[in-house]
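Lab notebook: predicted structure, single chain.

Context: the supervisor wants predicted structures on file for every construct in the current expression panel, including those that have not yet been purified. This is the next one on the list. No modifications to the sequence; it matches the entry in the shared construct table.
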Amino acid sequence: MPDKSKKNYMLSSVKNALRILNSFSIETPEKRVSDLAFELGIGKSTVSRLLSTLASEGYVMKEGDNQKYRLGLQILALNSIVTSQLEINHAALPVLKELVRDTGEAALISILEDEVVYIEQMEGSHPDPVLTYVGGRNPVHCTSEGKLLLAFHEAANIKRILANGLTAYTPKTVTDPRILRKQLADIRETGFCYCESEYMEDIVSYAAPIKDYSKGVVAALTLVVPVQRLQHQPLINVQKKIMKAANEISKNLGYFGP
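Prediction complete. Output recorded below exactly as produced.
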């Protein structure tokens, strides 16, 4: 039986850690343990312990010998991620609308964070519900966007993700790392990925890379189509449309290339 008191303690610690981070401002960028304890109504020992944990992860840092803390560089790293996502969303929206209007199918923008994370979506003209949501996560190895993003990722990350095991979701899910590595090599060659019923039965998805000014792949554009409508969306036509759309978004992000 779960220990509710332990769970509540952990949740309380997380909440207090977030309260500490939120207490810093432009007006008060530095604070002592005693300042935070008084302001937030938390014991000094608790504040000190939480600050030590936050400091170990780079979210706060101590200013010299004056016993004052300020926000750490890890906060800037998170800010850059959020800013990058906002830039991608802004660059993608008009192109996404045109692609959905042209195909009638749902379109998604995603990034890779060990799993596929969706940062933008748009429903098609058909009544089918979009199978995820902004902020939602899906596996990497059995989705077209996951495979595509993984294909252009660092070799060390590919090795680490494959080492975690490849769960079978349908009879078509690829669970052999050797086969998946071959698929990733093909994706790097073609710049396109197609998956049918690998994560969800009777669902086909097509993905193309979104690049930025550095010419690196920063996101994936995906079109999702139920199998029963495949005859209305021949692969070659969809491939041309989604790669054209992904290239337009890339240009909006400052990418210049073939």
